[in-house]
Design a protein that fits this description.
It is built from 19 helices and eleven strands. By secondary structure, the protein is an alpha+beta fold. Helix 7 packs across helix 17 and helix 14 runs antiparallel to helix 17.
Length: 551
Amino acid sequence: MMMLSRLACSLRASSLRTARVATSLRPASSFALSTSRLFSTSKDAPYRPPSCVAEPAPSAEVKARTDKAQGGYAALSDAEIIALVHKGEIQTHNLEAKLGDLTRAVRIRRKILAMELETEHARLSSASDKARAHRAAVTASTAASALGIDVTPKTDSHKVEPLHMEEALSHLPYEHYDYTKVMGACCENVIGYIPIPIGVAGPLLLDDKLVTIPMATTEGCLVASTHRGCKAITKSGGAVSAIVNSGMTRAPLLRLPTVTRSAELKKWLEVQENFYMIASAFNSTSRFARLASIKVNLAGRDIFMRFKSTTGDAMGMNMVSKGVEKALEVLTSYFPELEILSLSGNFCTDKKPSAVNWLEGRGKSVVAEATISAEIVQSVLKTTIPALVDVNIHKNLVGSAMAGSIGGFNAHASNIVTAVYIATGQDPAQNVESSNCMTLMESINDGKDLYISVTMPSIEVGTVGGGTHLPAQAAMLDLLQVRGSHPTRPGANAEQLARVVAGAVMAGELSLMSALAAGHLVRSHMQHNRKPQPAPAVDAVSMTHSLPHSD
């Protein structure tokens, strides 16, 4: 027995030594991504994004160097940091945490990106050369076989032209920016920021207050056109707006074993006491979230539950999602077999065109109106009331119906919505549903005045959260006097911002429709949206050429 025991111990020790040797011989690529970690070319090791790759412990050399220096990684040079990134000892998304200097982290990430893009460009160009040479060889071999001669193809190996990515990135600014406002909140793997021109339209007299509208855009003529609309509205006595509904939505996708059970859950929620129970759980997750309704639709045994809640001055998507999770915990205690397939089932609906947002609303539902005198229509807008009404009916209503539009009964609401959203730190992608708008125009008072209104059922805005805390965007909210939470009436600032969006859209609609009615659209864009170009030489051939079917 003693002999067997010693033999077993010996075998175990031998196995451990073998495992250690195997581990020491394992290539570094099994612990971290290689230099080209942004581009996977290995069939054996599928690509994983850097955020999914754990950093190994620093090597003894690096640990000794960083421990010796009081500043740790910060004491190393840029070149040394880049070398550690290429070895996989630092992940690029962790540069800010490792260095402490956010601007330096952004600078180093830019250098790494430029190097990797150049390397990958060279690799792809080399692969392309090899493929080209192979095709030439195959073609030559086929031709030689057909003719019975020996042909050796000549392949031209062209020199790979560098991309000069570091030079290209030099035009992207990164310095003099407060990245503490960005990290962990707005963006990851930051390499700089994009400056966008901001203009102002107005002032617009809206609900007896003068407001100046900030618009971030690169489309010439947009601010000028909206400004003209503001001028016409203000000179005619101003605009009036109303919030007719408010509430952010989230619609999880659930499933029960049978349609019978799904129908039972729908009826269960229609009982007032049960709704109050769910609402109590939902409301417990936030000081501001207050559940207003749950709309339940069935598709077979699948259940779509559209929770709608007020969210104070926040746009509120995260707030509502948190409340929904808590509500579902309570619901599953009454329906244990309930399966939660997805927290969002696309019945919300976020950042996608949908009839449910158009009909039921999402965010802030706003209506705005104004009465423009015939004199102002003539002097400021350079058109007439009958022309405006006629174009609006047949373009915005009939034309949009012909296109099968949902919520698109307007000329260019999304132009103004997006420009204001970018300027004030909103989510630009939510312009999809926030631009739902119906523009109506009527001739009133025996043709002496023009009545215009915009109905926008799903304006999604907030004055806290998201990008509203970034310095430039916060400054624009200050310009509108709506930054942050309202001190006495939660939600008032977000409502005011929604009113401003609707008022600005109405001004933009009025001006563009006037330009269309008067035939000025192309001329104004040539003036504001194009650089002066030399007059082209007259081409005698093109001047005498006749179009098909012309006389």
